[in-house]
Design a protein that fits this description.
Order of helices and strands: HEEEEHEEEEEEE
Helix content: 10-25%
Number of helices: 2
Largest sheet: 11 strands, antiparallel
Length: about 200
C-alpha cells in the first residue's frame, strides 16, 4: 500500500530544521562585529616632532566567535573640511594655512599599550601586540597613537578622529570608531603628556 505524503507536514519539518540550523549558527558560529564608544578623555602631548595621543578604548565583540585584533591606527582630519562654502573660501584658506589643516588628514600609528590613562612615572607600558576579544566579550585598552617626524601639531581642534582596526578575519583596515577630538580644550602645556578632557561640557 503506497504511503501518502503530507505536504504541510514536510513543509513544517523543513522549516523546523532550517530554524534549528539558523539558531545554532546565530548562537554558536556567527562572526560578530566590534563596537566602540567615543572617549570623554584622553592623554596627549602635542609636538610637531612626535604628537602622541592615548585613547581609552572599550571594544565589544557582538558575536559568539572570538575576534583577533592585529593593529590600530588613528586618522585625524578637519571637522569642517566638508562645510566650506564659496562665500568664505578665501578666509577659510587663510585659516587653513595658519592652523595646518591643509596638511590633513594625519595618520598616527599604534605605538604602545598603557596600563592606565593618567600618565605616571611607574605606569606600565607594553609594545603593540595582537590580542583576542572573546565571543560576546569586552576588551579595555589604553592605546597610544604616535608619529615621528610629523609635519603639524594637531592642536587647533575640533577634528574628526577615526580609529581604524585590522582584524584577523578581514583584509585591510576597518573603521572602529569615528568621533570628534576636541584638542582645542587642551590646557596645561601642549608639549606635556597629560590627561585631557574631550568633553566640551566638562566642568560646566
Amino acid at each position: 500500500m503506497a504511503t501518502v505524503t503530507n505536504p504541510p507536514s514536510l513543509l513544517i519539518a523543513g522549516l523546523a530544521l532550517l530554524f534549528t540550523v539558523a539558531s545554532f549558527w546565530w548562537i554558536h558560529a556567527r562572526r560578530g562585529r566590534m563596537l566602540c564608544y567615543p572617549p570623554l578623555s584622553y592623554a596627549a602631548a602635542f609636538t610637531k616632532d612626535r604628537p602622541t595621543i592615548t585613547l581609552p578604548l572599550v571594544i565589544i565583540n557582538t558575536g559568539p566567535l572570538p575576534i583577533i585584533v592585529l593593529d590600530f591606527r588613528l586618522l585625524i582630519d578637519s571637522a569642517s573640511s566638508t562645510k566650506k562654502s564659496a562665500d568664505n573660501k578665501d578666509s577659510n584658506e587663510t585659516e587653513e594655512a595658519q592652523s595646518g589643516t591643509s596638511n590633513l588628514p594625519l595618520t598616527l600609528s599604534w605605538g604602545a599599550v598603557h596600563e592606565e590613562l593618567q600618565p605616571r612615572p611607574d605606569t606600565k607600558i607594553e609594545m603593540p601586540s595582537p590580542f583576542s576579544i572573546e565571543g560576546r566579550g569586552v576588551a579595555e585598552r589604553f592605546i597610544e597613537f604616535s608619529r615621528r617626524s610629523c609635519y603639524i601639531s594637531p592642536t587647533n581642534g575640533p577634528y574628526t578622529a577615526t580609529v581604524q582596526v585590522k582584524a584577523g578575519h578581514k583584509s585591510g583596515w576597518c573603521d572602529l570608531l569615528i568621533f570628534t577630538l576636541h584638542t582645542e580644550l587642551a590646557n596645561g602645556g601642549h608639549r606635556n603628556f597629560i590627561a585631557r578632557t574631550n568633553d566640551p561640557n566638562w566642568g560646566k
